[in-house]
Predict the structure.
Amino acid sequence: MYQEKLELLIDGQWTLGSEGNSHPLIDPATEEQIGSVPCASVQDLDRALEASARAFLGWKKTTAAFRWGVLSRAADLIETRKSLIARTLTMENGKSLREAEGELQFCADATRWYAEEGKRAYGRVIPAHSPDIRQTTLKEPVGPALGFAAWNFPAGNVTLKIAAALAAGCTIIVKPSDDTPGTAVAIGRCFQDAGVPAGALNIVFGPSAPISERLIASRIPKKVSLTGSTPVGKLLQRLASETLKRCTMELGGHAPVIVFDDADLDRAMDVLVAAKYRNAGQVCTSPTRFYVHENVYEPFIAGFVERSRKVVVGNGLEEGVQMGPLITERRLSIMDEYVEDAMSKGASLALGGERLERKGYFYVPTVLRDVPDSARGMNEEPFGPIAQVTPFSSFDEVIARANSLPYGLAAYVFARSGSLSAAASEALEAGVVGINHTAVHEAETPFGGVNESGYGAESGAEGLEAYLRTKMVTDKRI
Ligand code: NAD
């Protein structure tokens, strides 16, 4: 049973919105309606804006130690409610319960990280050119913020924005994905129950385009943080430019994996199969372009296919399921299109390439081999359970091919040679590089892309910095 009560959070009150509009929420594993998502009206959005401005006046004056207390309680609540929220997350998004619980643990860890890091928003004393002058810099919260978040990490994407903003002393209005609203509501309740004051956190749902236009056009918010696709990033940046709001853009990726011929192949295949089918491939850092050295190409394909075949696909609520459905039916047709296009250009199918014959938006783990660089799926972010494999013969060739796309989020290198992996990690156009493993996002490390994968970072010290501005005070003794 889906249990979350879907409501907007405006100025500390949970509400169905002033106009009472809603749209259905569908479970991607069953295609059944499990809830109704309330839509914010223009009036609701304006109330949220005013509340975030009002609450900012008080929240920015709280001490870092006070905010630490509130955020620490929120982290504890996320951890305590983990199993319950995980069910909501799985029913909305489709990922397995195990993955959902792991995501929620990350949220608790990241909230604790930001709670601590908020105490370290240090300024500096800058030696002055005159003995009677003291020059200092102060770190201040940037102001009320806006957070737009994708559905693929329904808890993580919203928590990173809420926790960072609140730790820095900012207030925030979050617009989570309407595909995964209950998870955002459940996270919001943890923060509210932990003592976040009315207006400091607001959550709105409804049609993305008019909502973002209204919120970003306002002079109240001073910051936009988006986790979403590259086209939406470009759109929101254009809107933000009207009032010169600063942005953090966590956008799409198309991660190259380079497997050199000295790699520990068995280990590489174990790690990469788990990473490929995590959240059915709907991960911004999902390995998508597999460049495998020609000397180990055939054993890699054989081992990867053998492991992929064993991935258990089904409803994420069921015990033992490793991979759930895609988020919408439309994504199934796109997977078919990528497979057909690659095959028409010379690739062949080593596994899968079809939907599962059952209710729900399930696609079979798919391995395409000998995929040419011109295939659509090698250029557009596939965001699905498709591994595209292609051979390479030299270092320079593979780096040039890996760097050939406008994206630059994650990249992976598998090699035993330390000098080879170091050279590759330096040469790759990517914001994060994983060598011999794929865990490239932790609470304490900066995560973000380069080029058309965006800019700025979440997590780590940089994640807090994104919500701070610097004021210089020069003080002459009189
Ligand atoms: P999306 O860009 O379509 O939507 C993301 C969010 O942006 C939505 O929830 C909504 O709040 C807002 N939005 C959507 N359309 C909008 C519009 N027309 N105007 C204003 N706002 C709009 O992305 P998605 O399909 O929900 O998510 C998948 C994408 O997110 C992928 O490209 C993935 O790589 C990316 N992503 C990036 C990261 C990262 O950290 N870099 C993490 C997760 C997902």
User: Anything to note?
Assistant: The CA atoms of residues 13 and 69 lie 22 Å apart. The chain has two domains: 8-251+451-474, 255-435.
